[in-house]
UniProtKB/TrEMBL annotation:
Domain of life of the source: Eukaryota
Stretches the record annotates as Disordered: 1-26
Name of the protein described by the UniProt record: Ribosomal protein S18
Residue ranges with Basic residues bias: 1-11
């Protein structure tokens, strides 16, 4: 029981969520930043 209680939060909280989220959000952040750059560049040019 002690082991399970200690092991579960670590698994679900620290392993699953951040991994899934950070990987996805990182890629999305890069895309968003790239789009933002292009948008700003375009607007500054014209």
């Amino acid at each position: 029981m002690h082991l399970f209680g200690k092991r579960k939060p670590r698994n679900s909280k620290f392993n699953q969520a951040p991994f899934r989220k950070s990987r996805f959000s990182q890629r999305r952040l890069q895309l968003l930043q790239r789009e933002e750059k292009q948008y700003i560049l375009r607007h500054h040019k014209s």
